[in-house]
Write a structure and sequence with these properties.
126 residues, OB fold (Dihydrolipoamide Acetyltransferase, E2P), 9 strands, globular, Biotin_lipoyl, GCV_H/Fam206, lipoyl
């Protein structure tokens, strides 16, 4: 069973978001379930700061020794920050997907109605 923190919101595509200390700004990443299914992550393509993203649309990519997986924006908005450290250490997504392995921060322009609670996410991954 993968780790699923209660204080986050999730997508069916295995991304998570967390509130930040800044209003209307969330941090996103991929879930423990996703990193486990991918295996050893060797490359991450992140969106650019200032790029507009749309909920449910591709905004990046994760490559592992097994496969390539697209990253989907969990909300609509503008990329405010990216985790540059992942460029040189993509394996951080495997070791700490909810901490140092965050992908980017988004200033929300529109919330998604499709976000799941931890319990709902656990049910779809069981």
């Amino acid at each position: 069973m993968s780790h699923v923190p209660d204080d986050l919101k999730y997508t069916k595509e295995h991304e998570w978001i967390a509130d930040t200390q800044i209003a209307q700004r969330v941090r996103m990443g991929i879930t423990d379930f996703a990193q486990s299914a991918l295996g050893d992550i060797v490359y991450v393509q992140l969106p650019n700061v200032g790029e507009k993203v749309t909920a449910g649309k591709v905004c990046g990519e994760v490559e592992s020794t097994k496969s390539v997986s697209e990253i989907y924006a969990p909300v609509s908005g503008t990329i405010a920050a990216i985790n540059d450290s992942l460029v040189g250490a993509p394996e951080t997504l495997n070791s700490d997907p909810y901490g140092q392995g965050w992908l980017c921060e988004i200033v929300i322009t529109e919330h998604s109605a499709d976000l799941l609670s931890a319990q709902q996410y656990i049910e779809i991954t069981a």
